[in-house]
Amino acid sequence: MPDRYGWHPAAGRGKGKAMTDPTPPDRRPRLGGGAPIALLTIAGTIIGGLLGQPSIGLLTGLGIGVLVAIAIWRLGPR
After folding, report:
1. Please, which contacts does 64-68 make with residues 24 or more away whose CB atoms are closer than 8 Å?
2. Confidence (pLDDT) at 76
């Protein structure tokens, strides 16, 4: 029976329901693509800096990194 604040008494004094994995067994989590975004952004900045255009290199590296991350996310194992 809940008390007036909505709390329920502990069932069995700590012997509650066992924790389970929230991911269903037939569905694996998708891969992320954060590393390509970071690495290609840094590489683009360095290459752009060597060519005298660091901001264009940064944006190009970021764009390519996002495209690679989307490809990993979409084409990776499901």
Report:
1. 64/40, 65/33, 65/36, 65/37, 65/38, 65/39, 65/40, 65/41, 66/37, 68/33, 68/36, 68/37, 68/40
2. 76
Tokens 């944006």: give the residue: 59
Instruction: Please give the torsion angle defined by the CA atoms of residues 29, 35, 40 and 45, in that order, rounded to the nearest 10 degrees.
Output: 140
Per the confidence metrics, is the pTM higher than 0.70?
no
C-alpha to C-alpha distance for 40 and 69, rounded to whole angstroms:
10
Give the pLDDT confidence of 1-45 residue by residue, as tens digits. 555 666 665 555 555 555 665 655 556 666 788 999 999 999 999
Grouping H, G, I as helix, E, B as strand and the rest as coil, residue 9 is coil
Q: How far apart are CA 37 and CA 60, in angstroms?
A: 11
